Amino acid sequence: MSDRKFFILFGIIVGIGLLLSIVHVIYLAQAYPNASIIQFIAREWWIWKEK
């Protein structure tokens, strides 16, 4: 694989990851308007630990 193809593929993968992260944060802001991100993470961690 050439360097150019590698950097294009790497950029696409990083771009998709960033896009998913941004969409997730927007969803969190709409789903939990009165909660901070720290509270949300703590709540999710607690639910995950109980399973």
- Please state the oligomeric state of the protein chains shown: single chain
Q: Give the total of beta strands.
A: 0
Number of helices: 2
Biggest pleated sheet: none
Specify the structural class.
Answer: mainly alpha
Low-confidence stretches: none
Q: Rough shape?
A: elongated
Describe what you observe in this structure.
This protein is mainly α. The chain has one domain. It has two helices and no strands. It is elongated, with a radius of gyration of 17 Å. The termini are far apart. The mean pLDDT is 82.
Using brief descriptors, characterize the structure shown.
single chain; elongated; 51 residues
Topology:
Elements: H1 3-31, H2 37-50
In short:
Keywords: Membrane, Transmembrane, Transmembrane helix. The protein contains 2 helices and no strands. With 51 residues, it is mainly alpha-helical.
